[in-house]
Amino acid sequence: MSPLEYVWAGVMAVIAGPAAFEIFGVGIPITLLMVFGGFLLGVVGGATPGLAGPFLMAVSLPILLSIFGFTPDALLPVLGFLVGVMKGATVGGSVPAILFNTPGTPDAMMTTLDGYPMAQKGQAGKALRTAHFASVSGDTFSDLVLFTCAPFLAIIVEAYLGFGEKAALIILSMAFIAAVVGVSPMKGMIAAFLGLLVASIGTGEDFYSRLSLGTEVLASGVPLIAAVMGVLILGEVLVAFENMWRERRSQSQIKEVAQSGDNHLSWKERKALMPFIGISALVGTIIGALPGIGSTLAATLGYATGEKMHKGPVKFGQGTPEGIASTEAANSAVSGSNLIPVLSLGIPGNVGAVFIILAAESIGGFNPGPTVFRFTTSEVNPELVIAFGLFTAMMLANIFNWVIGGRIMAACGIMSKIPNQVLLPMVLLLTLTAIYAQETSFVAIYFALAFAVLGYLLRKLRIPTLPFVIAFILAGNLEHAFRQAFAVSGGDPWFLFKSPMSLFFLALSVAVVIFFSRPKKPAANKAVEAERDA
Amino acid sequence: MHSRRVEIWLAIFFAVFAALTAFVWAPLDSETAAIYEFRRQVNIGDAMLPMVAGSGILLFSVVHLMLQLRRLQDEDVDPPFDRLTLFFYASFGGLLALSLIVMFWAGPLALALFGPSGDDSVTYRQMRSTFPWKYIGFVLGGFTLVFGLTSLIEGRIRWVRVISSILAVLGLILIFDVPFDTILLPPNGDF
Q: In a 10 Å sphere around its CB, with 0-12 CB exposed, 13-18 middle and 19+ buried, how is residue A173 labelled?
């Protein structure tokens, strides 16, 4: 098959795939329906403070696996749903930021700076339209970069890197994530190695399951989804419980402002926003392609860049659409490009990408990484068809976003009024139920709770959780690469330092850790500092 | 970053834990050593990954310890845990344990008390997919968890929260159970 035929096969896998139902004799493809469902859930969830895209993806995954099972046919509907959630949550996060000065997702923090003042001036509708327009433009741009860059990067990696170099590349990625996330690279590295250690429990190639202490519970290994959801979701929920219990402050009454100002966003105004959106989308795309760097930093950089460009009468921070556009284009542009390391290298760079990898690993038949992009001509590479199907699903989500995203956003304001002390206990029960639905055993709930405690302790001790989770997921690949490279070298103990490329990757890993260990200056933006120090 | 004292103790804890893992737990609790020879071929054994992981933690916790020993000023003097933390998590842990016990046993208990008896008696396993038995544990345990936690956080009991908690549990039944025959609500898969 030629490359263009692969692209077309991916599009057809979505459009002409299994139908969910028929309307007037026309089948509605199940993947299309799932993308729409995910997008809808994402916008509503993103508009609800306390919920965020990764949480919704985490809870949805076990349900989706139960519905679709573990066959290759399940890949596109499940991945399509998760992609829809990811994109929907990105635009939904701006709703409470604009209407109630409460960011629905952390990266919408900067949106409050201009969005809320606009709402106070009676221009909430205009602010929401601006946020939607900028967000969807940034997201679409970022997706186009993903579609063009990921295959080339993957082909280069596959052509030039052997097992040793791949092992060194995984080490570099883990070092980079550990170094840039959190306040101390040393604690990030401790978290990453802790992830490797936990991943080695109950696994290995021998008959006896290593580190199982002779117990049956540990011999079958740590349930992947329960562990990841425990650390990432339940750990965060526990911290939130404690904080709310400590504060126990009454929910302040939300002051309603009559929306009588100019709420229309004309084409002329949209055109005037384009330079801000363009620059911010570029900033967000570059930031998103680097593993471990959050969308909050992208939003802050986009906002700062926009502020320098802005010459209008209303300054940034006083309620100007350019401020919202700069922020939203940047944080939305992260969502597409952060799949570049996932699809081209098999390395998840953020929490959302972790769940894409988890879905692919759980279902099987699609292993994100450089081998996906093998354009074989003699026989069909089904993984490549799935990859282009995923790109098609992303574009469908963008189309939904362009066409109806704005209307759904406007209807989601009510979600911001649900108090967290009511929502989060429900989130706990929902998460436990979702884990049980997947594993059908209370043991999985105990594992999830144990990992929730671990996630809680890591957060309280200010040890970043992302390096832990990413190392936990990559441990299998790393060990496989180690074993293969060692075998190929004929048992040479210096197998990792043989090639100049792997030496370069390892040297860069050390350099990254040392560079980010320098004393940090206080961040200008508190949200970025909070994300950095989390 | 926490206070210098907390960070030093943290580094010492990880260093000791890592040393024990890398040099005691991993080699003793794995079938093959880090490197082993089989049929004249040298291979990486199962002990390698945990030993590398332990050594990595050891290395970086020692470096962290050095950096903290050199540190002069405390950036943040708030301790990560205090008596309030202990009190909250004791209450939370008790509530969670109660909820899970109720969730696990309420269904079988209700069946034993109110189910058919004598020659018609059945086990919970036989009834785990039938109304109302399949919902009893989840509804009671789930309600205890959601309502109890909300009340614990708010510090008071409100009728409106009773309603919202019931609605939450019913909502989850609608999401997980009603549309799917293959999904079992907790604790029905364990019977």
A: buried
